[in-house]
Amino acid sequence: MFETIIGIEVHCELKTQSKMFSSAPVSFGQPPNSQAHVIDLAMPGTLPSVNKKAVEMAIRVCHALHMDIDSLLRFDRKNYYYPDLPKGFQITQQYHPIGKNGYLDIEVNEQKIHINIEQLHLEEDTAKLTHDDDYTLIDYNRAGIPLIEIVTQPQFHNSQEVCAYLEALRMILIYTDVSDAIMAQGSMRCDINISLRPEGSQGYGEKVEIKNLNSLANVQKAIDFEIQRQTELLLNHCSVPRQTRRFDEKTQKTIAMRDKELLADYRYYPEPNILPVRLPWHRIESIKDHLPVLPAQRRDKYIHEYKLSVKEADTLLLNKDLSDFYDQVVKQCIYYDTVCHWLIGDVLSYLHKNHLHIHDIFEVQDFAKLMNMTGQGIVSSKQTKQVLSLMILEKKDPLTIMQKHHIQQMNDENVLIELIEELLDNHFQLVQDYHQGKTNLLGYFVGQVMKKTQGQANPQKTNQLLKQLLEKRKT
């Protein structure tokens, strides 16, 4: 049959305060066209000025993706007429991208795949188009926002591999603090280039580009639909037209926008209003030296040093704030698995439900104190949950809360033995039933002790003592 070949172009908005070539502010959610600048709209007499912060952020990502960096910064014009470009051209880096020849390793079905990245270049974003059946709305707030475009080699074969790559890249963009990479807000978008060829063939089929996909779910649906569409065309001995298409969420199909342009159609030439800039090499190296710990390095540490499961490590890493918080807590607490258990369980659920960040509800030192007490068995799991809830509600440290609410775990063996002996004396028949094989009654006995102590008895110690005392009563 046919083999699918997919290449990916990711556009990522950088977290700068101003636009790529103008002083216009960058802020998501502002009224349409309230942040359009005369430079971004190419009004007569205006000249662009390169955003230094955007260049430094691009270099940071280049280092994270192991790329060769061009220290001579140069820009080009990409000429085309479309409503999202008011000046009729886009300033980009066609001939001399700032980064080349990088890679990113991903994992799909426990198999590692080495993804080759051809280039990373800086450019300005275009306006946002909102399509309806009868009209298109244009918002120029986005026009001119600093972008990096990251282009892979065409080496993906299905939507699963593409989504794994996009998620891994998204995490790098977040952990290097260059972008929020929120696809739903448009700060990270991707174009997918798909072609089909007969299995065993070395050439490429006709390429179809799907533009501006803004969620992993849409990426998967668009790729799967397009593979099916092209397969049906080829099986019916029809050619696949070279097109640019978009994914329609209503119909769950890709829709043709225009014929796919060739490079010559864009008439690239060097940007005449921005002279080449030599970037100091010591500054490029300094940016590399100050790179944060990247997701792959954290994952390796979580699994091999802290002995977390792959699922636990990946869940932590999906939320950078949570991962940062975990790293700070385990500097003060050696119960690595206990900390992870509570963070990715009850705490993460609460954060999602209430749309909060971890630092909105806990201080690192307070959370570490409670985790130490939990790990040492000073408080039970039930009590830990109670204290966490009260910490959120009262904004107090765990020790203050435990004293105020008389929360403590009963560990005194003599007291527990006395309670258990009294319980067993009062339930002679159940003790006999236990000895005759109804061992599930052990849970009932533990529950009765917990009820008697209002949940303060150490459940592990209670369980252990019950087994010992029941064994002694065996006839």
Question: How does the SSE layout of this entry go?
Answer:
Elements: E1 2-13, H1 52-64, E2 68-69, E3 72-73, E4 76-79, E5 89-92, E6 99-108, E7 111-124, E8 128-131, E9 136-139, E10 146-152, H2 159-175, E11 188-198, E12 208-213, H3 216-235, E13 243-248, E14 253-259, E15 269-270, E16 277-278, H4 281-289, H5 295-304, H6 310-317, H7 320-329, H8 336-354, H9 364-375, H10 381-394, H11 398-404, H12 413-425, H13 428-435, H14 441-452, H15 459-472
Parallel strand pairs: 12-13
Antiparallel strand pairs: 1-10, 1-11, 2-6, 3-16, 4-5, 4-15, 6-7, 7-10, 8-9, 11-12, 13-14
Features:
475 residues, alpha+beta, Arc Repressor Mutant, subunit A, nine-stranded mixed β-sheet, 16 strands, elongated
> How far do the termini sit from each other?
74 Å
Alpha-beta content class: alpha+beta
Number of domains: 3
Q: Low-confidence runs (pLDDT<50, min 5 residues)? A: none
Average pLDDT for all residues: 91
What does the radius of gyration come to? 30 Å
Indicate the proportion of strand residues: 15-25%
For the biggest β-sheet, the strand order reads: 2-6-7-10-1-11-12-13-14
Describe the structure.
Helix 5 packs antiparallel against helix 6, helix 9 packs antiparallel against helix 10 and helix 14 packs across helix 15. The model has no long low-confidence stretch (mean pLDDT about 90). The strands form four sheets. This protein has a nine-stranded mixed beta sheet. A three-stranded antiparallel beta sheet has the order 5-4-15, with no helix packed on it. It is α+β, with helices and mostly antiparallel strands. The termini are far apart. The protein has three domains: about 280 residues, no CATH class; about 110 residues, no CATH class; about 60 residues, Arc Repressor Mutant, subunit A (Orthogonal Bundle), CATH 1.10.10.410. The protein is built from 15 helices and 16 strands. The chain is elongated.
